[in-house]
Design goal:
This protein is 36% helix and 18% strand. It is α/β, with parallel strands linked by helices. The chain has 2 domains: 134 residues, Glycogen Phosphorylase B (Rossmann fold); 58 residues, no CATH class. The strands form 2 sheets. The chain has a 7-stranded parallel beta sheet with strand order 3-2-1-4-5-9-8, sandwiched between helices. Helix 6 packs across helix 8. The longest helix has 17 residues. It starts with a strand and ends with a strand.
Amino acid sequence: MAFELVFIPSPGIGHLRSTVELAKQLVNSNDLLSITIIIIPHSSGKDAGSDSIASLFTAARDRLRYITISVAEKQTGDSLPAQFYIKNQIPQVREAVAKLLDGSPSSRLAGFVVDMFCTSMVDLANEFGVPSYMVYTSNATFLGITLHLQSMLDEEKYDVSELDDSVSELEFPCLTRPYPVKCLPYIFASKQWLPFFLDQARNFRKMKEGECVPDCGGAGIGGGDKEVL
């Protein structure tokens, strides 16, 4: 029996390119595996054109294909984190996966592989009764800092967005030396953005131990019954 994986990258050519390269490696290593990448167009409409997307798949085998869905809405006004926009596309992704399964009766759906900004799709994987995995396309240091800040808030009620000038450095288990507070990315000091990224970190903790891609080395995430690639 053939097995099918559904990949869901975050909108944007950068995330899509690394996802396609990972998918190529997987299909080239297993003749029984097929992969369908579901492309969610960027809310701004400034995504790569269809020709640019198709060019990523020119050297791929027949067992690697893609589907571009129609988005549920166009985003207007102030931009919001990608995961909120992506969550609104769940009905369209559900329909695309259902059609895929209807068109491939001899294949068994083996799981979803979701981008770091697409963890809302884990619930959809659960609907189809398959496991879900995550691709983390940033670096291990950013992941470590995000997870530790989330732990500090949830376990110690320590909110880095409320730090005063008396705190100049923070200790992170993923770093070998204290980190200057003034060098923290803006999102960690912002009352608007910090909750979104900490909630994302809570979703990451549902994933099993794995490794980041493409170039950040191993980074384990404990707990739950999901995995990180």
